[in-house]
Amino acid sequence: MKIKYYGTGDGYGIPEPFCSCRLCKYARKHRGKDLRTRSQATIDDIMIDCSKDLLAHEIFYGLDMRKYRHIFITHAHSDHYDGDDLHSRYQDDGEWHVYLPQKTAEKEAERFDLMKYRNVQTPPNRFPLIHAVKTFQPFQVGEYRITALPSHHSPEVETVLYIVEHQGKSVFWIHDSGLLTDETVAYLKSIDIRFDAVSMDCTLKRGSFFTPTHMDILQCNETKELLAAIGRVDARTVCILSHIGHLIETTHAELSEEAKEFGFIVAYDTMEIEV
Predict the structure, then answer these.
(1) Torsion sign (Cα): 6, 8, 11, 14
(2) What pLDDT band is residue 112 in, cutting at 50, 70 and 90?
(3) CATH code, domain with 262
(4) Could you give the number of structural domains in the chain?
(5) How far is residue 94's CA from residue 112's CA, in Å, rounded to a whole number?
(6) End-to-end CA, the chain
(7) pLDDT above 90 (res 154)
(8) To the nearest whole number, what is the mean pLDDT of the chain?
(9) Does residue 128 contact residue 86 with C-beta atoms inside 8 Å?
(10) How far is residue 235's CA from residue 185's CA, in Å, rounded to a whole number?
(11) How far is CA 119 from the centre of its chain?
C-alpha cells in the first residue's frame, strides 16, 4: 500500500497567518518540510479527509482529484472536511462517493439534495453519493475493507478513526484523537490483524496535556506500546506522526530527531511511503 500525505498540519497549518512564534517564523524563512497544510492523504486509490486546502494541493502538490472516487472523512471540522469543494462539473459519467460519520452524513445528504434542486448550471455540477459509516461494522469498497472506530476527539462533532485493508496490507489512521477509547481498544483486542502502518495525531508539545482530544509524542508512544502489547503492531510496522501544528514548538528536523527515540518517522506535505 502506498500512502501519500498532501496535508500534515493541524487546524491552522504552519505558519499560522498572524503568528510570530519561533516555529512559524522559521517556516516562513526556511519553507520546505516546515510548511504544513491541512489534512488530506491518499492510501492507494482511496482518500482520507478533504480539507479547505484541497485547491492548494491541486495547484502546488499535483493532486488530481479526478482519480479518487472514494473519499473517507474522519469528521466535519473544516481542516478535515470542506464539503463546499466536493461538487464540480465532472466530464465523465462515473459515480463518486463520500463516506462520513453517520450524523454528519445525514446532514450533508440533505444539504447536497437542496443544492441539486437549486442547481441551474450548464453543464450541471455533479454531486457525490453520501454514505454513513457506522463504527465497528467493517464494509467493503471494491478491493478495500474499511472499518471505522470511535475517536476521542470532539463531543460536538462525531469523529472516527479508520482501518484500511487491501491485498493483505493494513493501515490504521488515528487523526484527530487523544488516547484510544476503551471501546476502540476492546475492538482492537478482538480482531486478528497486524498493522503495516499507523499514522498518529501528534498535535501537542511534548509533555503538554492541556487537551485530551489530541496527543503529544509521549502519548503517541503510549498508543504504540498499547498496540504492540495486544499484537497489532510489531517491529515491522511503520509508525508515523502527523497532524502537526505550531503548538508543537519544534521544527520538522528537531521533531524528526526526537521521534527516533521512539521509532517514529515524521510526515511532511507530499511525503510518500510504501508498506
Answers:
(1) negative
(2) confident
(3) 3.60.15.10
(4) 1
(5) 18
(6) 5
(7) no
(8) 94
(9) yes
(10) 20
(11) 31
H helices of the chain, in order, are 22-30, 54-61, 102-118, 182-190, 217-229, 252-260
- Of 138, 220, 126, the C-alpha closest to 179 is 220
The C-alpha cell of 262 is what? 521512539
Q: Are 197 and 240 in contact (CB under 8 A)?
A: yes
Residue 261: strand, helix, or coil: coil
The helix/strand/coil state of 174 is strand
Residue 58: how many other CB atoms lie within 10 Å? 14
The pLDDT of residue 243:
97
Boundaries of domain holding 231: 2-274
Q: What is the pLDDT of residues 127-141, one digit of tens each?
A: 889 999 999 999 999
- Cβ neighbours of residue 29 under 8 Å, at least 6 residues apart? none
- Secondary structure of 93-134 as H, E, C letters: CCCCEEEEEHHHHHHHHHHHHHHHHHCCCCCCCECCEEEEEC
Q: Which residue has the cell 489534512?
A: 39
Please name the amino acid found at residue 139.
F
